[in-house]
Amino acid sequence: MAHHLNTNKQFMIGNGILAFAVIFVVVIFVYMSMRLQQRKEGERYFAETYNITLVKGFTGDSISVLLNDSVLIDQRISKEPFTFEVKRFAEQSALMIVDQATDKLSLFELSEKGGNYRFEKEDDEVKLLAQED
Q1: CB–CB of 68/97 below 8 Å?
Q2: Cα separation of 45 and 89, whole Å?
Q3: Could you tell me which of 50, 33, 29 has the C-alpha nearest to residue 41?
Q4: Is 79 in a helix, a strand, or coil?
Q5: For 90, which DSSP code?
């Protein structure tokens, strides 16, 4: 008796092996792209700085100044103008000034280019003054 070939079974086995090869290649590419993305995020460095000055109306107030989610200042302001400098550390930066007595939050979006920012407090409202160049 002649042994006949089972071509349908061979075809299905071949397709199964090909499917596993495709899944393996996709997993390799996803892994490589994730590693590359982690490496890029780790190398980010920003040279820009923000010079922040509290010009008028803050004397005697206990305030917190936050950049994104990092606390920069958490103290009572004893003299004006109160100036400090902070380096940019994220793609986008939001400055938050919180009056601890009233828990009032003032939110300001900062430029990606850095710069000098002056703030004034008038009637429990913090205002961003025009930038000096």
Answers
A1: no
A2: 7
A3: 33
A4: coil
A5: S
